[in-house]
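One such shown below:
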Amino acid sequence: MEARMNLMANPVAAKILKYLHSAGKEIKGSTLPVATQHLVTLRASQINGCAVCTDMHSKDAAHAGDSATRINLVAAWREAPQFSDAERAALELTEQATRIADAAGGVTEEAWLDAAKHYDEDQLAALVCLIAFINTANRLNVAVQQPVGDYQPGQFG
């Protein structure tokens, strides 16, 4: 399958993506734990049905040393004991923020306060920005039907 559009070859999209890439670098460089970043991006990508990002973030998590068991269980994290309380809070926030249209009122106060117990203000800011960032990336890739499967860890810096 070929993408409907090459976003990097389109001058308008390329300019916008340059800024998104810069935002992504800032999030990656934050104090939000790297393992949490991988779990969050993987879970949002699963929810959004973004095969490209699911492939990318599962490979990145494995490359960073996360176990195959944890990666495979992200979709069922509530039932899996392999995740810390902090990771669970981040995954709950991710699910609620990704599924805003499915829940009147968006993110619950309970989910927010639980995440705030585990992450300082800078980490929480990075987490919220990461959730927004990955949802944007998912929507771009799904819209253009970006081909999946050939991603190599670290490919995009």
Summary: The chain has one domain: 11-144. The chain has a mean pLDDT of 94. The first helix runs from residue 11 to 28.
